Amino acid sequence: MSSVKIMFHFSWIRKLLQWLPGDTGAYGTMIFRRRIQAYIKAVLARDSFLDEAPSIFTHLRDSTGLPAAEKSPQRLEDEAVLMTKLRTELGARGPITIVTELESLSYPSAIFTLVIHTDESLFPNSWVFDPGRWLPTISVPAATDAPVVQGGSEERDAAPLLISHRRRSMLSFMRGPRICIGRHLANAEMAVLLATMARWDLEPFETDEEDVKCKHGYHVMCPNLGSRGVRVRVRGKWSVLKVKTSEIYY
Fold this sequence. Notes:
Elements lengths: L2 H7 L2 H7 L8 H19 L10 H7 L10 H5 L5 H11 L5 H6 L8 H5 L35 H17 L13 H15 L2 E5 L11 E3 L1 E3 L9 E6 L13
Antiparallel strand pairs: 1-4, 2-3
């Protein structure tokens, strides 16, 4: 992830690397990209058919609102960029030095998810692992103008609203048109992973707070660069606690 910032500032390096022979260890990835290139070229070369299986490439090809440059094979193969729209917005306003004017534009705005996810008004004790904060039996913090009686009808009525607001504020996959298209797959993978891990008795192994604390931002939040990640020792099945300690590490 540390290479993300380098590629951001020196984007020409990417084009240079594309001319170098590929790594034999990534042969499968190279074949996959070539198949994508061949598929895109085939889609762009033919006209639209009624019996054609729709895909994102067919929709882009048949779109009348996109310029030809946006339909080029290289453009469709690579990740989408927003630089053209950003420059259009900035160029239409002229030189802008006032922060409020910049914030009124749509593309220059951004949200640092860590700031939202650690907002104590939304997530009290945000650094504490507390799955109960998502359950309907949570205790709703008292409002400044109207105290909420714990366990009373006001709290039961406010709890679903608070949980709904927290879910809207959970931006792990972002929101709106830029939301991650793989969010459902990621949620399914996490559910399967948690269900699998719950079947085992695990204990931390040479892992402390420094292995999870956010220290760097390389496209995603990262801990200390020398961290080996969260590691655990498998003691056995959760229902059989006297099984001999295994020397399996993750």
